[in-house]
Amino acid sequence: MDLGSMSLTELRRLQSKVESEIRRRSDTARRDLIKRMQKMAAEQGLSLEDVIGTAPAAAEKTPSRRGRKPGKAAKAAKPATVSVIKYRNPANPEQGWTGRGRKPQWALDLLAQGKSLDEAAVQI
């Protein structure tokens, strides 16, 4: 197959076919692996839930959300990380900022006064 001679439309069509085939094969491999794991657990008198602590197809049983194709498993949510406070309002130490996202008004006021955020930096 000579990709250099294909038009952009043909390449995009080919890309779509490749992506769908990869998804199909990945799903098939996953289902086969789950079946083999269930069989191995059953041979030991256990269920797969007993071994791993959750239902193997739990992600597939969740109702589909708008904008997502039905039957696709949802991505696992990342655990929330707690950000460390890097700056504190010198006028009110109860107000802190991690340095991420939008600057709070007190930080903007500090900068407007010609001061540096280093002056509000938390000393570790």
UniProtKB/TrEMBL annotation:
InterPro entries: H-NS_C_dom, H-NS_C_dom_sf
Pfam families to which the protein is assigned, alphabetical: Histone_HNS
The keyword Iron-sulfur is annotated on this UniProt entry: no
Superkingdom field: Bacteria
Cellular component annotations (GO), alphabetically ordered: cytosol; nucleoid; protein-DNA complex
Residue span of region Disordered: 54-80
Domain DNA-binding protein H-NS-like C-terminal: 72-122
MF terms (GO), sorted A to Z: bent DNA binding; DNA-binding transcription repressor activity; minor groove of adenine-thymine-rich DNA binding; transcription cis-regulatory region binding
Keywords: Cytoplasm, DNA-binding
Keyword hit for DNA damage: no
Places the protein is found: Cytoplasm, Nucleoid
Family: Belongs to the histone-like protein H-NS family.
Protein name listed in UniProt: H-NS histone family protein
Organism: Parazoarcus communis SWub3 = DSM 12120
